[in-house]
Amino acid sequence: MVSPKEVINELLVDVFNHILSIESGVLKQRGVKISMTEVHVLEAVRNVTTPTMGNVAAKLRVTLGTLTTSVNVLVKKGYIQRERDESDRRKVYLKLTDIAHNVLKIHDEFHDEMIDSLFKDLDLEKDEVLMKSLENISQYFKNQY
Amino acid sequence: MVSPKEVINELLVDVFNHILSIESGVLKQRGVKISMTEVHVLEAVRNVTTPTMGNVAAKLRVTLGTLTTSVNVLVKKGYIQRERDESDRRKVYLKLTDIAHNVLKIHDEFHDEMIDSLFKDLDLEKDEVLMKSLENISQYFKNQY
DNA sequence: TATCATGATTTGAAGTTCAAATAATTTTAA
DNA sequence: TTAAAATTATTTGAACTTCAAATCATGATA
């Protein structure tokens, strides 16, 4: 007999482990030549309140060296511009270009579709239940590790 | 104003994108020298009904060449044994060793904790709602891509 | 000012992945 | 039956991702 826990786990592994490769295919299909790793860098730059190298690296949980390598490529490809902080010249701010925002738009649409499918057949009360459970897991990891 | 959809999306990105690095830390902490990629190969070998190279590669959605490289290392490290099918000698079956099962035990415990935290405060009826929504998303991707 | 701390980059090595070429074996069809 | 096609897996070469350690530049502190 299969418990709900096992079903959920199987779904998490099967679905979420592979969302990246699916979205990668979507981008490729639309002619955008960018890796998912690079998309996530752009997303982190957008979502972090102050997009310094350090903050973005922390958001992504990679080392600064790793991020520098990524950003070098993204600058070369025209997705990101570097700007030094004039009052503290150690800091570098990352700025997204227009084509970066275009890529993030596709990324957002993909995630919207995903979330919509997640929400299908669910009314608001139940959405809140789901959200509560996701907050639980989020909180759990923040406390635990 | 932040919509429930945005909150869910943020949680998905923040939590699920980083589960791997968290679990990797757990394994490292316990002195197990294995990458998460390698753990996932072991998991796929265990979960697939007939663990040939082809079936495991399909489960993981990587090419056969990629899997061969992984398996070469895992054989060298003592986690996997190769066995040829005697009636169809093109096929190779993968077999987990005892130390592979030990690693998967830690992996399972980690996932159990994760799922438990997900289920905290939720009664069975609500679990079913969550499960239904995960099935929705799973189905969505299977149909769409 | 000399030392320490902070923020970022560079370098070298290891790990991951793919596409294309190759190899071994089985199946199909002439 | 045997030649061609299909299946299953491996090897090879290149690109990408990541990290740790070394380095560099700048700022804070004593």
Low-confidence stretches of chain A: none
Work out the count of structural domains of chain A.
1
Structural class of chain A: mainly alpha
The proportion of strand residues of chain A reads: 5-15%
CATH topology of chain A: Arc Repressor Mutant, subunit A
User: Helix amount of chain A, in percent?
Assistant: 55-70%
Q: What oligomeric state do the depicted chains represent? A: homodimer
Strand count, sense and barrel status of the largest sheet of chain A are: 2 strands, antiparallel
Overall mean pLDDT score of chain A? 82
* Widest beta sheet: strand line-up of chain A: 1-2
Number of strands of chain A: 2
Q: What is the element string of chain A, with H for helices and E for strands? A: HHHHHEEHH
Distance between the termini of chain A: 33 Å
Tell me, briefly, the overall form of chain A. globular
CATH architecture of chain A: Orthogonal Bundle
Brief summary:
2 copies of one chain form a homodimer. By secondary structure, the first copy, chain A, is mainly α.
Tags for this entry?
homodimer; 145 residues; mainly alpha; Arc Repressor Mutant, subunit A; two-stranded antiparallel ribbon; 7 helices; 69% helix; globular; DNA-binding
